[in-house]
Amino acid sequence: FPQIMRTVVSYQCLFLSFVPSDSQWDHDPRVYRRTSQCDRLCVDIGSHVAETPSPDVSHQYTPKCLSAHKGEATACPEVWQDGSSLRTTIRAENEVEANKLANNYRFGFRKWKSHVTERPIEDRSDIVRELYSELNFVRPQGSLITCGNIAYLILFGWWISLAYLLVCVLMFLTIIGVPYGKLCWKLSCYFLWPFGKSILKPRSLVRRCCVKFPHCEAIPEESDSKEVKESTPLLMPPSVPIEVPPQRTRYWCRVSTYVWLLLGYPLLGLIHSLACFLSWILVFTIPVAKMNARTLAIILLMPPEDVHIHRLKKPQGCDSQVLLCCYHAFNWYYYKYTLDGINVFAVNLLPLVITTLVVGYVDTENQFVSSEAKFAAAVSSIIPLSYYIGMGIASISAQSNFAVGAVVNATFGSITEMTFYITALLRGHKAGTKCYEEIVKAALTGTLLGCILFIPGISMIIGGFKHREQRFNSRSAGVSSALLFISVGGVFAPTLFSKAYGSLVCAGCSSSQANTSGPFTCMDCHYDMSGSNEPLYLRHIEPLVYTISVLLPSAYLIGLIFTLKTHSHIYDIQVSDPTNHKHFISSGHGTVHWSRLRALSVLIMATLLMAACADLTTEHIKPILDHSSISQYFIGVTVLAMVPEIPEIFNGIQFALQNNISLSLEVGNCIAVQVCMIQIPLLILFNTFYDVGFVLLFSDLHLWASIFSVIVVNYIFMDGKSDYFQGTALVVVYLILLALYFFAPSPHTC
Q: Which among 11, 253, 431, 506 is placed 20 to 30 Å from 121, CA to CA?
């Protein structure tokens, strides 16, 4: 019966693919594509067939369902099933996206929210389609008196209108440019408040046609006094006069055109370019940028008599073409806007990276820009570079097999974050101070605390506001928790060993009594293995550090084999779509934004830029450490640790809003495990070949804060449920630990 039903559905898909549809529906974005009918049929029958149990097979695959639409094959659900857990599946637009979603659930892979392939605009929601519109269509308008439109009037409208008014006066003074002066007057009134108005271009009378029949020609009626002959052509009678538009001077043959291009257009081009730049940088005012760019590129280069401004309340016919029509200057959803798959915020921050590097390496004496400003710019530049690295890693992993994806994630995911640590250690070794080493240890600990506490906590809080209770796979979370315990235990084992067998060194001791045998008051006591008890370090602690640096990557490799090969069913994939289909639907391979070669090039370039920004950060952090009243521990734990992880924080929040809290938790756990099992062993390996004085011994505050955080997180994750209260508990614990670092005294080496 299942095979018969699948065959029936295949023929229904073939039939629906060839059913003709009205051309008006094809252009209406609110109407589903014809292939979606086939998809729904495939899903329905696939779900019926999937109800048949398969007790002896742990992974079940449902065959493909053919679709002849556009010559492509539509893959039906691909189901992954585990006998001990609920079936979890994914739904994606194509195989590349499905591979990317599957990698999100696998251990050792960087979790990435954004798409790595292009999505047809007709498949997007109405809100997203409006973001990518060219502002050249008329739609039913609501209220035009909004806070965003009023903000446009205050920020842009008045000075753009004033610029047009000044150019209008200039054109009237030239006499020959009077037509353009009239155009500037109309545009001055338009840009003061453009909402609900449309700039139209009349169509040629010869090209007029009916809306419902865009490819036909109208047959005029013959007069009753004339007799239609059989030899007269039916579609084009020879005696029918054709209305021809009046002849006029060509646009580029007018003297006024060149007067306009020399006097008026450059000034307005500067004004529109400035408005376009400012509104684009603000992101949420991108409609204003589109409006200015379209005016500069199209409207100002048209004959002035062809530009008409009207207040439209309904769509126009074929007698005119809408060139520009804007209803709102502000849209909150523009944070989703992408260019070639790159988020608009990452695009806008890319000039900051270039400016930071140029200023940082040219102004070496800090004559034009202060050291504090360079430090802030360098740290901020790490944010977009982290995004590009994440996008490149996700693109390569989605187009490669598990082994290549795991290697790329482990390599670039670790090296890019180690650039700051290595540059700081090199600079500290060159300066002969241990302060940079303490900053690196504080940054490592801060990354652990932020990924263990803050990222899951803030995701639970924001996701809990939208979803009352969220559930996650407690078994996969248990694997991550076990690896987290191993990681933290291994990293801090040398520190515990030094506490048990090391010597306590104090900066100074004094006795308040005359008797020297009385109690002493000692200050700044710590365990120092590098000086006073060097034999213990060389004979016992250093071999222990090397042993741990081998065991931790081995444990990471075993975790990869366990989760990707032998027990891959633990990471069951579950992505809920709006229609609640429990299947994977693929319409092909999809067009990737970045090919493997391009993604690899971006990774290499972003890594080099990251190293340069890290070098500037460590160069200009010294004045801040010397003159700041804040503890150096706090600076390392917060700014240096969490700023590079801002893209991961947003990924975790977006996963939680989609009721996918499992990925939100894995985002932080994955980074924390990689820090302990890959980055720290690599730092030890680097120190072995080039001695920069890095010793794997942490302060007591780092030790107990990390251990306490791991215990709290494992207690929260025990029941496989989350809500905003549990997230609040994690964030509060994180803030308490930050308060400890804020009020803690600076390291004795700084």
A: 11
Residue 284: other Cβ atoms inside 10 A: 18
The residue type of 643 is V
Query: What's the chain's Rg over C-alpha atoms?
Result: 33
CA distance 575 to 659: 9
Give the integer Cα–Cα distance in Å for 114 and 110. Answer: 12
Q: What is the pLDDT of residues 398-409, one digit of tens each?
A: 888 767 777 787
CA distance 609 to 615: 10
Q: Which residue has the tokens 């209305």?
A: 243
pTM here is 0.75
Q: How confident is the model at residue 13 (pLDDT cuts 50, 70, 90)?
A: very low
Q: Name the β-bridge partners of 504.
A: 527
Outline where 432-508 has alpha helix (H): 435-449, 455-466, 474-491, 493-501
Question: Helix, strand or coil for residue 79?
Answer: strand
Looking from the CA of 424 toward its CB, the CA atoms found within 13 Å total: 26
Closest CA to 290 of 161, 165, 152, 125: 152
Joined together, the tokens standing for residue 682 give 């690599």
pLDDT for the residue 354: 95
Which phi-psi region, left, alpha or beta, contains residue 473 (left: φ > 0; alpha: ψ -120 to 50)?
beta
Structure token digits, residue 175: 């006499």
H or E stretch including 339? Answer: strand 338-339
3-state secondary structure (DSSP) of residue 388: helix
Strands (E), 480-627: 504-505, 508-510, 521-523, 526-527
Angle between helices 402-431 and 680-689 (to 10 degrees): 50
- Asked whether the predicted pLDDT for residue 444 surpasses 80, the reply is yes
Q: Which segments of 129-220 are extended strands (E)? A: 197-202
User: According to the 3-state scheme, what is the secondary structure of 409-443?
Assistant: HHHHHHHHHHHHHHHHHHHHHHHCCCHHHHHHHHH
Question: How much of the chain is helix, strand and coil, in % rounded to 5?
Answer: 60, 5, 35
pLDDT at 606 over 60: yes
Q: Which residues contact 284 (CB under 8 A, 6 or more apart)?
A: 148, 330, 331, 332, 334, 335
Provide the CB-side half-sphere exposure for 38 (13 A, CA): 29
Both tokens of residue 619?
A: 């160069």
Evaluate whether 747 touches 438 at the Cβ level (below 8 Å): yes
Find the distance separating the first CA and the last CA of the chain, reported in whole Å: 76
Distance CA 176, CA 257 (A): 9
